[in-house]
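Look over both lines:
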Amino acid sequence: MHLPSCCWASSAPVPEPMTQRLDRIDLLRAAAMLWMTAYHFCFDLNFFGLLREDFYRDPFWTWQRTAIVSLFLLTAGLSQAVALHQGQPWARFWRRWLQVAGAALLVSAGSLLVFPKSFIYFGVLHGIAVMLIVARVTAGWGAWRWPLGALMIALPFAAPPAMAAWPALEVFNSPWLNWLGFMNRKPITEDYVPLLPWMGVVWWGMAAGQWALKQQPGWLGVAEGAATGARRALVTLGRWSLSYYLVHQPVLMGLIWLTTTFLRAP
């Protein structure tokens, strides 16, 4: 809680308002993190030849990836709704944005070392960095986010017939424009989260969050909740999701490599 600046007689600078996280949003984010970890563990087993699965075409795996990314972006939209509701200033927004963008660059650099022919140049963190700016700029769109989100989700399905009818649109398949998501050929990369359709999920998350804050604020949880035990651990994971995201794959791959090296040793 903070007092408006008009209540202060001192000429000292007024601290930025601190946004408070709501625990149920962090629980949702933690669920996405744990699901992602299980998915990546299986992916890494496949990478080391300990599992034989087609993660790029088998619906069992592709639909899981879609669900995990959807949950991530839905919580990103919910969090943006809460931040705007609590009056998050632009300065604080940009500090957080720089963390996400910097993490995205680290992912690109790391994936270039492991997957030089399919490195990640516009994955989930790159997408979130762009979508956060779009979300902030469209903060006043209110309920219009529902139909506009649906449009964003539907537009990629229109790309193949549109490109068949107007071949000039194939330019959107180029590496300089495929981050928009209006394409008929998915680029060769280990992670790809373009603006279309995923901005639609973020907008739906924002619209749902703004509705809940006005109509059912308790649905999103409580700020600084006195959670204990497993719930507290999950809330903490949700609050440190960016750090966890950056370290979980190196840790998983390192553990699998060490285990296989030890077991194969004479």
User: Anything to note?
Assistant: Residues 22-218+231-257 form one domain. Confidence is low (pLDDT under 50) at residues 1-15.
